């Protein structure tokens, strides 16, 4: 065993009803490990720092390249991706905990389905249902494509929601990711047919007006989405839609 070790403290909870506890581990050091590989080392040899056998840690992971968004967790207290967070860049002991604003499943696994429900609520898609050939879509200016492209990089990790002071049960705020995706599809020449419905969905309870522009979201986003610009631009559109609806009802 290498003399150098990596010290990790992991918050564990077998089920949401059982009490949480912290387990400490000391893992043989290897250069260039990420948090996912660290958790893999524990799974290979699930023994805690005092030599007691334990169980492998539950966590979500899929792509291992910051694309699927499943491995978000609190690493040294900060919401970030396990697969792209390098051990060598972290202070020790490294602390791992599940995202705190989502229902716990087990250990580091949480249920992030609220984001997908929110995306459904704002119709964050281009309506192209059909098995027939729809032909090519409308032509788009490259400038518009370039403006929209960064928003399409969202990986649904929920880090922006975890750090948002407004994302809580008392506001029902949908969060920055949902607003950004609504804006992305509103600005798409094909997706814009649902623009008014998206704006109305964001005008109600939990909508865009709940945002306090604290900008925590933009700092936490692993894909650097221009979240505050999207929120600001769609806020203007929501107000215009409300005025329009007021005078046409
Ligand atoms: S700007 Fe602040 S309040 Fe608005 S979504 Fe981002 S973190 Fe939340
Ligand atoms: S906007 Fe960024 S932080 Fe939020 S879910 Fe998408 S990728 Fe994650
Ligand atoms: S495993 Fe897919 S983003 Fe980390």
Would you write up a description of this structure?
By secondary structure, the protein is α+β, with helices and mostly antiparallel strands. Helices cover 31% and strands 13% of the residues. Helix 5 packs across helix 8 (227-248). The longest helix is centred in the C-terminal third of the chain and has 22 residues, at 227-248. The radius of gyration is 21 Å and the shape is elongated. It binds iron/sulfur cluster (SF4) (2 copies) and FE2/S2 (inorganic) cluster. The site of one iron/sulfur cluster has 16 residues, from helix 4 and helix 5.
What would the keywords be for this entry?
249 residues; alpha+beta; 5-stranded mixed β-sheet; two-stranded antiparallel sheet; elongated; binds iron/sulfur cluster; binds FE2/S2 (inorganic) cluster
Helix proportion of residues, in percent? Answer: 25-40%
Spell out the helices and strands N to C. Answer: EEHEEEEEHHHHHHH
Number of helices: 8
Give me the side-by-side strand order of the main sheet: 2-1-5-3-4
Strand content: 5-15%
- Whole-number mean pLDDT: 95
Number of strands: 7
Rg on CA atoms, Å: 21 Å
**Low-confidence regions:** none
Distinct small molecules: iron/sulfur cluster, FE2/S2 (inorganic) cluster
What sort of overall outline do the alpha carbons produce when their principal axes are compared?
Answer: elongated
Characterize the main sheet.
5 strands, mixed
Structural class: alpha+beta
Ends apart, CA distance between termini: 74 Å
